[in-house]
Predict the structure.
Amino acid sequence: MPSSVYMEELDAFTYRAAIAEGAPIIIPVGSIEQHGPHLPLNTDVVLSKAMGARLAGAIGGLVAAPIVYGYKSQQRSGGGNHLGGTTSLDAATLISIARTLTLEFARHGAHRLVFLNGHFENYQFLYEGAEQATAELSLHGQDVSAILLSYWDFVDEDTIEEIYCGSFPGWDVEHGGVLETSLMLHLYPELVRPDRVMDLPAAQLPRYDVLPVRAELTPESGCLSSAKAASEAAGRLLLERTSKALAEAVSTELALWLP
Amino acid sequence: MPSSVYMEELDAFTYRAAIAEGAPIIIPVGSIEQHGPHLPLNTDVVLSKAMGARLAGAIGGLVAAPIVYGYKSQQRSGGGNHLGGTTSLDAATLISIARTLTLEFARHGAHRLVFLNGHFENYQFLYEGAEQATAELSLHGQDVSAILLSYWDFVDEDTIEEIYCGSFPGWDVEHGGVLETSLMLHLYPELVRPDRVMDLPAAQLPRYDVLPVRAELTPESGCLSSAKAASEAAGRLLLERTSKALAEAVSTELALWLP
Amino acid sequence: MPSSVYMEELDAFTYRAAIAEGAPIIIPVGSIEQHGPHLPLNTDVVLSKAMGARLAGAIGGLVAAPIVYGYKSQQRSGGGNHLGGTTSLDAATLISIARTLTLEFARHGAHRLVFLNGHFENYQFLYEGAEQATAELSLHGQDVSAILLSYWDFVDEDTIEEIYCGSFPGWDVEHGGVLETSLMLHLYPELVRPDRVMDLPAAQLPRYDVLPVRAELTPESGCLSSAKAASEAAGRLLLERTSKALAEAVSTELALWLP
Amino acid sequence: MPSSVYMEELDAFTYRAAIAEGAPIIIPVGSIEQHGPHLPLNTDVVLSKAMGARLAGAIGGLVAAPIVYGYKSQQRSGGGNHLGGTTSLDAATLISIARTLTLEFARHGAHRLVFLNGHFENYQFLYEGAEQATAELSLHGQDVSAILLSYWDFVDEDTIEEIYCGSFPGWDVEHGGVLETSLMLHLYPELVRPDRVMDLPAAQLPRYDVLPVRAELTPESGCLSSAKAASEAAGRLLLERTSKALAEAVSTELALWLP
Amino acid sequence: MPSSVYMEELDAFTYRAAIAEGAPIIIPVGSIEQHGPHLPLNTDVVLSKAMGARLAGAIGGLVAAPIVYGYKSQQRSGGGNHLGGTTSLDAATLISIARTLTLEFARHGAHRLVFLNGHFENYQFLYEGAEQATAELSLHGQDVSAILLSYWDFVDEDTIEEIYCGSFPGWDVEHGGVLETSLMLHLYPELVRPDRVMDLPAAQLPRYDVLPVRAELTPESGCLSSAKAASEAAGRLLLERTSKALAEAVSTELALWLP
Amino acid sequence: MPSSVYMEELDAFTYRAAIAEGAPIIIPVGSIEQHGPHLPLNTDVVLSKAMGARLAGAIGGLVAAPIVYGYKSQQRSGGGNHLGGTTSLDAATLISIARTLTLEFARHGAHRLVFLNGHFENYQFLYEGAEQATAELSLHGQDVSAILLSYWDFVDEDTIEEIYCGSFPGWDVEHGGVLETSLMLHLYPELVRPDRVMDLPAAQLPRYDVLPVRAELTPESGCLSSAKAASEAAGRLLLERTSKALAEAVSTELALWLP
């Protein structure tokens, strides 16, 4: 039995044994992106990795080394890519990474992959990369499937109600807000500086994008809503409920692919 | 004054005169995609073009020739790209088209572009292409901005309520449903075959994607919800309200960029 | 039986039935390109589409949605890509479009494709795209073939003599000239403004290209020869003869591939 | 004064001195392509290089190291890329080579480049590469121009008449025929094996391409017309006349770009 | 003063302040690669990151989030990319990552970057990416320079002699051997399993590569030489000496670029 | 029996016969790169070609037309790509060339290829291209293998000692030095100008690269060490010994792949 759910910490022999036994691979996908003055630049990396570790535990999987750098931050979901600290790849590069990793894990003998996304803007590019790779593998008769998801899609409405008490601003402006800050307070309190939270009103963003961005649309904090109401307790609740919903959905899906 | 809002029907001299007077360019982006047995494959093309024509009328713009083929249909928003009739480009190609057209219209002297999207899956790739092009143009000191939007984001909640009477299934399963069918009945009734609508329950799709798709998740019709309740009157209402909201938003934004 | 030869106007179920019966797919390829003060920017699109419709009628095929934007206009065949209104893709993008569409129609079950070109500059890039796709399909044992042609190669010498009465300037300078204008007068008279024809001598262009172009080599009209002698009658003759020659050539070729 | 017109044989110091004096760079572009049983695979390389050397002599230029491998042979101009010995690059690679070399020679300080093409199929891809590079250079204010030509476009009608005596089959089927064989007999007789010429009728090729090619359309020799009538004398005449016409055209064009 | 040398653990405001003060950015580049039964798959990541942290401390820099996945393992330096666990990117993807990160850090205002490589095979691709980006930046007048190095090039001969006592097998077969194992024993002993070291003779590899690899050339351990002689003490010595040499070289170079 | 070991000088029929008999293909890879005032720009091309001809003679192979232009010169191995005369491709282009040629020779029926490199900087990009192509061919069941080598790796220590008498400066600074000059003096004395050798001390280059390069690190000659000690006799010895070692290694490897 592997000594860690993190593939990167295993030696190759142990890793190969786990794959031979059918362990699914969970690939956390984050970003290096400003999250205001109170959260670290790697928030999306460590949250997707933490969610991945819980999922791995639940389904007997392994967590791959994360995709650290993600797609460009967009103003309506992450404040915009003009901001200092936000360090992004372009579409072609992220697509290639997703495609190549799918092919590499398939070469190792893995049959089931989960791209666990922690940065909104990544999704369509992960999809394209995984689509290309699984289509190529199908063409050559290899049975490899990939599940793609963003973890916040597994936060249920009751939990939202419980945490936000009716003032949920919408996922679109949840960048650096209550969800991420609470999860970080629970998981990595040493990386959070709650005293630096800027309690500003949620951003008012139009129903379209404009490029180049009009920088004044992003609040001074870089966050799209206030993290004032964040708490360690909310983080624990979010992690528990979301991990559970994720594990249920993924294990149900994986069961459908069994021989 | 141009004899048509459609750039493609103008001769070059007339077109150049309009650009010289500052006409914004609206680029409709569609797809060739199955929309069930009752709607034509070019539904997304003709609807984005029609929305574009109304917007052009309102803001003194021109409608560019459409981007006809779009990104791969995804199961949760369009039934999936495995379906016959759906004819798609990959990400790199759509990104290049958006980037190149932005640069070409800038070369003509256009300063304001609107990508008016009619196919959900296109959005992020249009964004990447427009982002690349506007960044290049900025680097060389050219003042060119691009607005990106999907037209259904301008349908307001009252209209949804009025049309769906509380049974709105969500935009995610609106593929081939009441919205698109009503608009087509109003605009292009000759292309609609209402007798062929398959009145099936809305699709139950998971909160993730899986690739290769499990084909059984898409209803037999290829539509994600029933178009039974569609009507010409609903289409007229949708077109009027959405066109109006679109025109207001775009003209407000354009006013901000004036010298 | 399909209600239209235009694939884009069919619903997916009707389209699939036609493909299942072996209908070849004809893909019109145009451009958005200046054609002087008397012809619309989409001349190459609508002419290739019209030729395609007649070919489809003759061979029981379907006309795909057109490739609207084409390769850069070159000075010796289209006046040059520096001219306002001309809106072009680069080589890589057009190659990708041709490759991807070939693969998509093959996925639908189509075995015979015809790229019907209406813009001189496109040809080699369509060839590369179709070559890549058919080679990939062959490698995987799929019997898919693609025919590539430019419609003016099917205008016979008698017709040229009949129309030009000895003053045929050569296809190279036929941009915006008698051929295209006559066809447009016959097919889409509402898009032609004959009163705006500029009756200038045919362009004198060198036997080489130079880049950046020397703009003064292109006549002020943007046309490479005068359309003065164009007529609706000539257009009808050209369409009839060329359609017939096209249909004969393509049906003969297709017959060779039958099982 | 350089000891050779061939850049590749010069040392860097001598080369730099020539560039500093304004020497134009002539880039021969060939292919490795079957030319029947009597001509070597590098026919297009050595002929474009020989034409380049004469042009360099006439205009005080230098001949760059050749682009040895060219674009895929097409059936209607080179017999097809399915034939053994024909060794080709794809479009993207040839475009990159043309683009990169243009940028590199510009970096050296060269202002005038001539792509001298010896393989029909290359032309559009050289054009794209040179177009991209000269556009980039213009954008940054660099005055660099590129001339693109295929040498046979400078064979005049009198010479054709003199050599073919009324039986000129057209440039399209001149692959491995009288022109190339005569030039090789004159320039590189040791590489020609006249006894192996296969005297077959000119190929009858359709007015379209079909992919995959129908191999039976290419004559057994791989040549599209017979080289029977080739002679050293015809080669000398062709070389003299064509070189002269080339030199006149290029020097006239270059004079237009002088400050 | 930043609370961490690791950029990813800083909030954006703190990061921006450090950049504004001129902090160089050090980008560790690793790989996910088998390193035998005794070392974890992320050995190259954590070692380059550790070296980076020491360098950052010495020069007042920040360590960027690492490039986790690297170029394909080659048989002569890493055992080969056919081995399970080794998870690699292709050349184009790694080049893009290096290029894009250089441009992103330049956008933040960083002027001096150091790519600190921990996986032999990466080097040329990092070079290409950094070369492209710095050339683009120069073209637009931005003063950004990048240093590229592999850390083992800073191990001096005395240290080698001290550690290997005359039996240094050469860097080429140092994969999973004494150097990496000693460093890991010193830095991350909890990730090393010394009891699993396979004490096999150093690999005998030819002076060329062959593809596909002949798998039998790689020792069963996946290591190219034995780690038997590794020790925590040797690791400490290597880290101290190498860090010192690195810091001296980099600070000397950076001093040359000061205004 | 072919009349030449150079494929490019053979006609297609003779070439095909040689391939049918199992002749391996040797692909020389050079560069157009400054080599000081005494050596021509094509030094790497002609030396790799000459080594290839000897290898072909020894193993019954054919020498393909060379890859003439190579990857960017790097300061630590070739003086840097900022120098006039050095004319280079980027990574993507060289990778594509290596990949495409491998696929083309495989299509001809060749099973064994040797990339014989004569320019240090090329190696990793040739590797990537050959790796991609051989992997694709394997996937489709084709038995094609490629050997990759740089010829100086076959110069043995005794020869180095004999020629340099203890003052060997290392391969890294052997650019334009004793090895290349001696080989050229032996093989192509007419291209060498020994009187122009600049007898400067070997370059002192750091253990890292910096980009943009600091031009002052490259000696004025462009050579990294002095060619003063070069001689025709040393060239003969180097050629004999190296050719022999190369032939032994390659023929041993090829024997392992025989059925």
In short: Chain B touches chain D at residues 140 (CB under 8 Å).
